[in-house]
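Q: How do we represent a protein-ligand complex in a form that can be generated token by token?
A: Start from the inputs.
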Amino acid sequence: MYDIPFLDLPPLNGASGTVRLPGSKSISNRVLLLAGLATGTTAVHDLLDSDDTHVMLDALAALGCRLHHEDSAHGRVLHVTGLGGQLVVHEADLFLGNAGTAMRPLAAALAVLAATQGGNFKLHGVPRMHERPIGDLVDALRPLGCHVDDLGQPGYPPLRLRGEAGGRLASARPIRVRGDVSSQFLTALLLALPLVSAERDIVIEVDGELISKPYIDITLNLLARFGIAVQRDGWQRFTIPQGSAYRSPGAMHVEGDASSASYFIALGAVAAHGGAPLRIEGVGNDSIQGDIRFVDAAVAMGAQVKRGPGWLEAHRGRWPLAGITMDCNHIPDAAMTLAVMALYADGPTRLTGIASWRVKETDRIAAMAAELRKVGATVVEGADFIEVTPPGPDAWRPAAIHTYEDHRMAMCLSLAAFNPLAGATLPCPVRILDPRCVGKTFPDYFEALFGVATADAQHVPVITIDGPTASGKGTLAAAVADALGYHLLDSGALYRATGLASQWDGVSPDDETGLARLAGLLDLRFGHGPNGSRAWLRGREVSDELRAEAAGLLASRVSALPAVRSALQSLQLAFRRAPGLVADGRDMGTVIFPQATLKVYLTASAATRAERRHKQLISKGISASIADLRVDLEARDARDKNRSVAPLKPAEDALLLDNSTSSIEGSVQQVLSWWQQRRPF
Ligand code: DC
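Then emit the structure tokens for the protein with 2'-deoxycytidine-5'-monophosphate bound:
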């Protein structure tokens, strides 16, 4: 997951492969609350692991629910032992981040529990949570006899919920709730009021036209799984039968998130052209989520979608897409994705019935309008609609996208990077600010996107960092790659691994043909282990062996052989993948990536380098003399510089960086600042 201030997406031009969706946020948090209130233990499979579920889990733990994670052959399982409707903790301070799906239902449940069993609970969140309305829910709870204190602005969190043991609720009359601002208020009451249904039926009546009805369907569906059969009369009146009690169903499986699927359905419609469709696993035609109906909207714009149980396949159909006019009341979250698909349409797209966008993680109508304009679209917005006219080929612009701490803004606008498919005259990269915000529902979104998206190699930015041995380029390159979220190529490791493989196979260091054959078949994998980056050669971990002095010396010899160098060329080029690459070595800027966007040549005096190497060896418990090390270094420099092929030298357009006296952080900042100067944002 990218924990960086921005992530630059290069212009992208295709998509193929399979995406496995994370669990649904709406289902995860409802299931967690129900399991937490129920009698018995529920094994929850495929739970979403994200910011919004973490705050719910923390709240349940604080309330005394027992939570136990188990890694099984079928993935992670969470066992939740519920309270059986009885408070065991009567006072708590619960921080709920920006999770509406935690704030609203917990407020209702704790209000009725405190009012009947005694308690004092404070509910609060991030500043934006304190701007998201909850007054309609509070207005429904107070006439019941719940004590709800506004701790900030009336009608908004933070709230305090209080009560004395033995309190009684006025539940004989129907409980009225407004349904036209957020359906979460009704969901909250439906989830909470079975707790107080012992003596009589509880009736909830909805004032105003209920919005986002499919979310109420999810609530009713999950209540049924926990033993509560709510009677529904139209969308106006809901009855919880007397004596309803939550019973754990034993196990619950959380289906993939249908709103998260929307980005990949859109991606298929825009970028799966030619070959195979984009396959999406985790949600399909058997979904209980309303946002699955996004599929019909995408089809109306021209997508081709096949569906089965637990899967979807999306492919480009009509192209360009068709501009549409649609009332999106039934798919409020996924409709945001339509606003971005509109960039690829043949005319304007008008989405109506989206007033609820204004009270979500941010004012999504205003945010979407502002950011779509930045990439070049013409946008008209109103209280409850947005109309997007796509940019003409010359109007696309590179844009730094504000994400407003809203996961959906980040995921939606990432799709603007496919502008080459819209015929953008100037293919434009897209900068996503604060990419970590996707952690709310889809922490690995960008990894999933880059796993299926393709780019023209020439559009994938490359930063090369060349220099002599022990100049610190490996450390610098890794830090720069980390800061930008780019891939890393440690090209020296390829020569070191070739040397190692030659020893394993008994190939002589002078057998150029034999060594080239080994290099061409090099089965080398990189990954992360507990102590940083690791490498495996033919399945065997070789991280330490590769870094040893002996491997470096051998690499210096094999790398002087032209056939070995050319055998490793295609392997190195294959590292150039979205979102970008930082490559370090000797000839990255001169031979392998001569078109690199930024080339750095890193040096340090021989004395400094010998000292650094000495420190490194000492820290590994290997004794060495600085003088000997310096002689070795200079011999390797001479060999690397004087060989006939790809000698070590700065590229003509390289920027020189002597880090003899500067810190690693200083060098990283210098390279990032050079990089920023070359970006169009
Ligand atoms: O960067 P390093 O110390 O891991 O490199 C080991 C040897 O590999 C070095 O002596 C020169 C050679 N090398 C090369 O010739 N070209 C590269 N791009 C990287 C390394």
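The mean pLDDT is 95. Residues 6-22+256-455 form a domain with the UDP-n-acetylglucosamine1-carboxyvinyl-transferase; Chain fold (CATH 3.65.10.10).
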